[in-house]
Amino acid sequence: MLSYAVALIGILVVFNSPLNDFLFSNVNPKQCPGQIPQLRRIPLSKLNLKEDLIALEGNSSLQCMPHTPAPVVHVYSREPLVLYIENFLSLDEREHLLGISSSAKNRLLTPHPSEPLFEPSTTTSDGGQTTHRNTTVRDSEVAVIPRTDRVRCIENRAREIQGWRENVFIERLRTQRYRQGGHYNHHFDWSSNRGGWGRVSSFMVWVDDGDGSLVGGGTEFPRMKRSKDPRWCAFIECPGKTADKGDGLEQTPELGVTFKVIPGNAVYWENFRSDGTGRGWVEAWHAGLPVEKGVKVGLNIWSTGYIE
Description:
Keywords: Dioxygenase, Iron, Metal-binding, Oxidoreductase, Signal. The chain is α+β, with helices and mostly antiparallel strands. It has helices at residues 2-15, 17-24, 91-102, 149-161, and strands at 72-78, 81-86, 119-120, 138-139, 141-144, 168-170, 174-178, 183-187, 197-208, 215-216, 219-225, 255-259, 266-270, 286-288, 291-293, 296-306.
């Protein structure tokens, strides 16, 4: 029986594309003994960057005015890089996102102005080739929102935070609506890399919590190290005090971070290591926890680009 189990694990490692990409990154270690295997990359020209999926640059004359209160960035982790951003969205931007997500009249493409943009969310397990609906894995509604001037300003802000990285493109922004019971099981955003290109970073931005009526729905990173500084309890779920080692700080489990749903705020993280191997961070494993009461609306900002 043991030999059968070992054989089965071997088959899964070889033929499961996301797992294979994560573990081996399409690199043959025999070709570079004694060295960290480096990722092979295909030219940008071979990528199919469709404008319906990628927010390509445009409208250089767009004027994006700073909003108040101004965004404040906190470094939560350095490896992987995780940033927490207060006031990433203004109240006006949040209301705009809710408006264009809830009604298709802003698309100017349909004779039915009351038709909603939100559609049932899907999942993929083969690098994006096929999608399917599975509410046991992901139960929410998604809207690929139109690129209004305000939306383009949000895209620009996401680029600025990343330092205007070369060969990194913001994907079309998507709002996600989670009703009671809605959730997204633990997953990696990167799926798999293609020739050294992939979804290099993610923002989870909170748009609405039903005027504070929301219960549950936090974003959980079970493999991420928990900060012991109690000031983070304003933004993450903190368990009760267990033991005090004399430093005045509450001692909590070392792993497992759940960011609270705070409208306007955002968490940003890097999906891949910056060592040339194309390997992803295991700490980026995350989930949208079930909504126990109310409705949550979030905004996904993903960046596709060159894996460093």
